[in-house]
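Re: beginner question about structure tokens

> Can someone show what the tokenized structure looks like for a real chain? I only ever see the sequence side.

Sure, here's an example I had lying around. Input first:
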Amino acid sequence: MTGRFTRVTADPSAVQRSAWEAWVLNHPGGTVFHLPGMYETYLHTFNWEPLLLLALDEDSGMKGVLLAVIQREQGLLKRRLTSRSVIFGGAVGDDNLTILSLLKRYVEEIRGRAIYTQVRNFTDPGEEVKSVYREAGFTFEEHLNIRVDLAMPEPEFWKGIKQNRKAGINKAKKQGFSFRVTTDDAVIEQFYRLLGSTYSRTGLPYPDISFFWALSEHLHGELRWFILEKDGKPGIILAAFVSKNTLWIFYPGINQSHSFLQLRPVDLFYWEVMRWGMANGVTVLDWMGAGRPDKEYGVRYFKQQYGGDLISAGRFQAVHRPLLMLIGKTGVSLLKLKGKKQ
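And the corresponding structure tokens:
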């Protein structure tokens, strides 16, 4: 029986690593993004800084966790204009009072360290949790996610895939692609080149390579590399997590050449990822975002064609430095424009 919540601490040594990990794995709201391995990964990522808060009871037992990562871009000016904090999965606690205490302490700790905070939910937080975040100074913004049920036989799942995606999968099957899954970090260099090619089209920032080396070291048991090859050369590499019977689609690196994409490799790739999940005890695939409902989003259309539930998970946001937020938005827009021109 656990004790009563008494305090919030920013000291990661306040609990044993094994106890922290066990609490997250046993809590229904705990995800891979709340594990100590993720905190350790953030610690070892260039230009990133973790902000950890633990809620404890009178016996220093776990009652809740909030793990944020303050992300900055390289360069003095960019650091000032792009400093933001992201909380994947939000604060997790045994009750709403604990979550509120974590959030209030967080607002104190983040002051002066980030322009804004964005909480990226994976599922609908519900009205009670929304009111807790409002009390802590956060606003709610609509944002969609898709979660796919993989707990079914493969033939049944195939029936739910839309015809256009099936046509792409069948075409790609004839092109000599091979698919494999590994935990070997030897793929990181190749993956990072593909990731850079993918993100250069959008102008959006992506993590330094140190993040992926750190993931391989500190979350080796959860990290999987999904690879699609053509003539022995990787064309798609996905960094994903498998934790608590859930497969998280995290960072994909995709060869952007027309000659490659016209073979419909992406269609086949995600079908193979899902097949692997069904064969390896995964019950849910989480796409980790499907855009805002008020904006057309081709990626959302693509993801929906594999089936799954469209969820209004939303995001909570708090702006800590409004003027820099305005300047930063302008800068990000310019970076996107520059990326598209290139």
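Each token stands for a local structural state, so reading them left to right follows the chain. Residues 140 and 316 are 5 Å apart (CA to CA).
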